[in-house]
Design a protein that fits this description.
alpha+beta, four-stranded antiparallel sheet, 4 strands, about 50% helix, elongated
């Protein structure tokens, strides 16, 4: 860990607020590196680091260390110029290509809408705003826990988002979702979603995307 994991993320730092978790993790690993045994004081220090990481202490740890004061969480500055390859990796981990099907108000037709979305913890709101500048499209939706960068505008998806991921392709199974996404977009360009045959084709593609791929 000290020879591989920590040097890697030190040389290639995370860009999200998760970097603060890594810095606390690193402090803890280096703290115990040369210790033969841990005292109660050592344990309390390590628990204080854990209290500032991720979701904080579990119920069991809170019971065992009720008076622990969380360690100061390191500040992570937002990166102004995002690297395209990093954005692709970010989307591979936390992004989603979605085909939505909903009935119209009268329930006589099925409305198809495409959405590209990346979800992150709300503390990364500034970074997510940076994606708006990076793609020059989209918006963010913020709630107490999460922030979403998303776009549903068809022209933005077909003229900006899709060409980007064709130039910087996602590596991994999510690439299959992207291919399904593009297939549906092409059907919609040809107005096929307005026909029964085209709509059935779109619904079949949708059924095999994302979680649907793993269903029997």
């Amino acid at each position: 860990m000290c020879n591989v994991i920590i040097p890697h993320f030190t040389n290639f730092p995370l860009l999200t607020q998760k970097r603060a978790d890594f810095e606390l993790f690193k402090q803890g690993v280096l703290y115990i590196k040369d210790k033969e045994s841990l005292t109660l004081e050592d344990l309390e220090y390590l628990v204080s680091l854990r209290a500032s990481m991720g979701k904080g202490l579990s119920g069991k740890l809170l019971e065992m260390f009720p008076n622990i004061k969380p360690a100061d969480r390191p500040l992570v500055e937002n990166v102004k110029n995002l690297n395209p390859n990093w954005v692709t990796g970010f989307a591979a981990g936390d992004g989603c290509f979605t085909v939505k099907a909903s009935k119209t108000e009268k329930g006589l037709k099925t409305r198809i809408q495409l959405e590209f979305k990346i979800t992150q913890h709300s503390r990364d709101q500034e970074l997510m705003k940076g994606l708006i500048e990076f793609f020059n499209c989209g918006s963010i939706i913020v709630n107490q826990k999460f922030v979403d960068y998303h776009t549903t505008k068809f022209s933005d998806l077909t003229e900006i988002i899709m060409p980007f991921f064709e130039k910087y392709p996602i590596i991994g199974v999510k690439y299959l979702d992207f291919l399904g996404f593009v297939e549906v977009a092409n059907l919609m360009k040809g107005k096929k979603h307005l026909t029964a045959e085209g709509l059935n084709k779109i619904l079949a593609v949708k059924a095999g995307m994302n979680k649907g791929r793993y269903l029997d």
